[in-house]
Design goal:
The structure holds three protein chains of three kinds. By secondary structure, chain A is α+β, with helices and mostly antiparallel strands. Helices cover about 25% and strands about 30% of the residues of chain A. Chain A has one domain: GHMP Kinase, N-terminal domain (Ribosomal Protein S5, domain 2), CATH 3.30.230.70. Chain A has a five-stranded mixed beta sheet with strand order 1-2-3-5-4. In chain A, strands 6, 7, 8, 9 and 10 form a five-stranded antiparallel beta sheet that branches. The mean pLDDT of chain A is about 95. The chains are: A alpha+beta, B alpha+beta, C alpha+beta.
């Protein structure tokens, strides 16, 4: 398959978005019953579920710390998540790496010292993938942690920027990710704007990176408003305290 | 944890003496069941099933694979089940647990022995056939995963589109009509606690049960069974549970 | 519902000391999802139990040792009841209520003043919502006890013991309180529920 033209003549992207426009993003909190906290994110065609357990007893015991809770994270792609093929189950090198950088992202904001000798588990399932799953995963996991009542210094939201046909663009779709010139996922602490996750591939100039960071930060302000709104809705009287996943949102 | 299980068992048993259950259901009553289909765009078929607080996803993907040596003119049907660790405080990440393998195999048998999918029609050319992968994904465990899995699997199959194949390759995102499914196979699971039987046991009820029996049915015959746990069953009890499974099976079939 | 507060949201431009918050650069921020009560204190809507000296708790004896008992309190932390000064003895699986008399730096607890709770059943309840289950001046507790005939022992750790009586009704009522704890008009709805289902 050849590289498609990713920008139309009117400067719009293949899906009609402007360069600094997010794909449609829906967030729901409290969607699972057994998990202590949970969230669902539907972003473009990404569908991501996050569940949090803990603080609970640290296993194995010799890994526990008398000073703080251990944070554990598992990012996993469901075997049916991609359009192209049925995947294998079990961790790939990619998912092991993503689990690690996502864990490190949250180690910055979780007030782990409040729960010595315990562990907090963050489980992320990519039910459907469409480019930008790690950003959707982080955005979902932050809401799940808040829903679990785990003390956090700050909320976290994430988005990728990249370069498409020479232009810095926000929230790359799968095609833009595959055929674009660069991809840079970034996670921000919502309040103080600290960068908690940063990866990049492809080639960008110093100026382009600065422009991308700015674009991502602006988008994350919007994303964190949606996260807060999801929590607000979940605790609203209308839901009667029921926890249910609605995949149609 | 064993001690907490024992406490659960005692409280469930005490209520059972009065033919009561913790959630107020009759002994042969299902919790509220919801079935949503076509929940994923990337899968050829999909479903989201809720039985009470239990939530299970079923998804179908097609691939190309070599037929098995003993059935060279047939495609492959493969059922997998994952107890996603976000689905229960008891599920752990790592290689498949015996429970998840049992769930996959029982779901698989219910569908395979019902002979409702014509895997012969999956044949493409010598050494090449379509493979249907049905994945069961447990995302919230409040007991009775067997019935939730069989419903989710069946509902996904009933809504499965056939992939378009060109030059021995699947064209992603293009389809050629529906997967034919001859009949609906569903399962009913009972927990035995003391001398009493409970249909659709919740997690608390399952933690206190002695025996479990899952009966998969088609409208006119039984197509799979699985007994679990250490307890025993009497012949008469099995016959009664099968009768009840046919009756309740009709309710389940009407939902998908 | 009053305004929902999310983690990282500033709740005071001065340093204040209260649970589930933190202070940075002289300002106080919430660390949890919460609402503000009438006194301006934040009330978490969710979260784990943190042991506090003096708390009344309910637990299960999970190990009988020479010097006393290990008690499961539905927390990741250990709780020990010394048998040295006890007249009663307990068995594995006994449900007891007790008081936390000390908490060490890794939150291991020592218990005292145990009472054995016989019959009935144990329910798990969200620890942050325990005050709603007790109600103002025990009003919710009395309401449920009155309509179900069940004694209740409500541990701050989130274990609730339901004594013999209309146990199933008491259990389903308690679960309803947990689900709807943050929605106003709770007492009325629970009264209604108990009259409707309590025949």
């Amino acid at each position: 398959m050849g590289k498609p033209k990713l920008l139309n003549d009117d400067g719009k992207r293949l899906d009609g978005r402007a360069l600094d426009e997010l794909r449609p993003l829906k967030i729901a909190a409290r969607v699972l019953n057994d998990a202590n906290g949970s969230a669902y994110v539907h972003w473009g065609k990404n569908r991501v579920l996050a569940g949090v357990y803990g603080p609970r007893e640290c296993i194995p015991k010799h890994n526990s710390s008398p000073y703080a809770a251990q944070i554990k994270c598992r990012y996993n792609m469901a075997p049916f998540c991609s359009l192209e093929e049925h995947g294998r189950s079990g961790p790939s090198r990619r998912s092991v790496e993503l689990s690690k950088v996502i864990r490190e992202t949250f180690e910055n904001v979780i007030i782990a010292g409040a729960y010595p000798k315990t562990q907090i588990d963050i489980y992320i399932e990519i039910l459907q993938s469409d480019g930008g799953t790690r950003c959707a995963a982080i955005t979902a996991a932050a809401v799940a942690l808040a829903d679990a009542g785990i003390p956090l210094k700050d909320m976290v939201s994430a988005v990728a920027v990249g370069k498409v046909e020479g232009k810095i663009s926000l929230d790359l779709s799968k095609e833009e990710d595959n055929f674009g010139q660069s991809d840079m996922p970034i996670a921000f602490a919502s309040r103080n704007g600290d960068v908690l996750l940063l990866q990049m591939d492809g080639q960008l100039t110093k100026e382009e990176i600065a422009q991308g960071l700015q674009m991502a930060r602006n988008a994350c302000v919007k994303i964190s408003a949606l996260q807060a709104e999801a929590l607000r809705t979940a605790y609203d009287g209308a839901k009667n305290g029921e926890k249910q996943l609605d995949l149609s949102i | 944890m064993d001690i907490i299980n024992e406490l659960k068992r005692e409280s469930v048993k005490k209520l059972l003496e009065k033919n009561e259950r913790l959630d107020g259901r009759a002994l042969d009553e299902y919790r509220r069941i919801e079935v949503h289909t076509k929940v994923f765009e990337n899968s050829e078929g999909s479903a989201h099933v809720r039985i009470g607080k239990t939530q299970v996803l079923g998804a179908v993907k097609f691939g190309i694979a070599a037929p098995f040596a003993d059935k060279p003119d047939e495609g492959v049907l493969s059922v997998g089940a994952e107890l996603a660790p976000l689905g229960s405080f008891m599920f752990e990440p790592g290689p498949p647990s015996p429970s998840s393998i049992e769930l996959a195999r029982v779901t698989d048998r219910g569908i395979r022995s019902a002979e409702i999918i014509d895997t012969k029609s999956f044949f493409l050319e010598a050494g090449k056939a379509l493979a249907l992968y049905l994945d069961i994904y447990v995302i919230d465990n409040d007991g009775n995963l067997f019935d939730a899995a069989s419903l989710a699997g069946m509902a996904a199959l009933l809504n499965t589109k056939m992939p378009k194949v060109e030059e021995g390759k699947i064209i992603p995102g293009e389809y050629t009509g529906q997967l034919p499914v001859a009949k609906k196979a569903v399962s009913c699971t009972f927990a035995k606690i003391g001398e009493k039987f409970l249909l659709d046991p919740s997690l608390d009820e399952m933690r206190g049960m002695d025996t479990r029996l899952t009966v998969s049915t088609l409208p006119d015959c039984v197509c799979a069974m699985q007994k679990g746990e250490w307890g025993a069953l009497k012949e008469k009890e099995i016959v009664e549970l099968i009768e009840l499974s046919f009756k309740k099976g009709e309710e389940l079939r009407s939902l998908i | 519902m009053s305004e929902l507060i999310v983690p990282g949201q500033m709740i005071s431009d001065r340093p204040t000391r209260q649970p589930s918050t933190y202070v940075e650069d002289g300002k106080t921020y919430s660390a949890v999802v919460a609402i503000k009560n009438v006194e301006g204190k934040i009330v978490p809507l969710q979260g784990p139990y943190s042991p506090v000296e003096g708390d009344f708790v309910v637990g299960v004896v999970t190990n009988v040792k020479f010097a006393g008992y290990e008690v499961a309190l539905h927390t990741p932390y250990r709780a020990f009841l010394s048998s040295r000064e006890l007249r009663d003895t307990f068995e594995l699986g006994d449900i007891i209520s007790a008081e936390i008399i000390s908490v060490d730096e890794v939150k291991s607890m020592m218990l005292d003043n145990p009472r054995c709770l016989r019959g009935g059943m144990l329910a798990e309840f969200s620890p942050v919502k325990i005050p709603r289950l007790i109600g103002k001046k025990n009003s919710m507790l009395e309401l449920i006890r009155g309509k179900t005939g069940c004694e209740l022992a409500i541990g701050k750790n989130g274990y609730v013991w339901i004594g013999p009586g209309k146990t199933a009704l008491a259990f389903s009522t308690i679960m309803k309180v947990e689900r709807e704890a943050h929605i106003s008009g709770l007492t009325n709805r629970i009264e209604e529920y108990l009259s409707k289902n309590g025949k």
